[in-house]
Amino acid sequence: MFFGSIPALVTPFSGGRVAEDTFRDFVEWQIAEGSDALVPCGTTGEVATLSTAEQRRLTELTVEVARGRVPVIAGCGSNDFATALEHVAAAKKAGADGALVVTGYYNRPSQAGLVATYRSLADASELPIIVYNVPGRTVVDVSVETLGEISKFRNILGVKDATGNLGRVSAQRLACGTGFVQLSGNDETALAFNAMGGVGCISVTANVAPRLCSDFQKATHEGRWDDALKLQDRLYPLHTALFSDASPAPTKYALSRVRPGFPTELRLPLVEASDPSKGAVDHALEHAGLI
Q: What is the mean pLDDT of the chain?
């Protein structure tokens, strides 16, 4: 159900408010450029700075613009179970096709706590759920054994793995089964991730280079590894440049270069990308042939 190039959509702001018209155009462009699914309200969408009303509105807008052409996986995570459950219910009501649910950041739950949380979410909702494992931000790592247990719950479909540990892909295939959807959370390792059994990437770079990221994912799915490697080499400097400052500041700057007029505004505590970061982004965009 979920595979390929899946941008974790940035949220455009103008004057402190969500720029809805810009967001609509952006979602339409992503679909036209070949993105296989869309994730509003993820980390790259600055979800931590969004109000509940804004978060739900962005999911509604994404579903409205997508019109069933590609799946919508709504960011629904929280460190409060009741809030996460409300987000999942709202996403289903809006017509989303799935929910991306991050582990309990700040609380630092035990593995047993993670199992209990995802079991309760699965029991309470019919919406397919993708586990989001990003220990670099949450300080919580879903172990292979824990994920194997969680994968048995009826509507836990897969994982967005942002551990950076490529060995996890094989270990998780053995623990969860080959039908369990494994999506990379790291663009720079997506080639190896797919070679080991992954089926796609929830991507930052796809915000800026959706066509190239789509072509890259298609090449891996079709076993055209030489083509995929060439695209990896073309995109790699951009993968790294987009994290040369606090994300998504470099990504919004990159979008302003490839889509002139795209707002670079962020919400505190995030600020505009530094000049060295902008220089790295410019170089990477030139290397990729995007400017």
A: 97
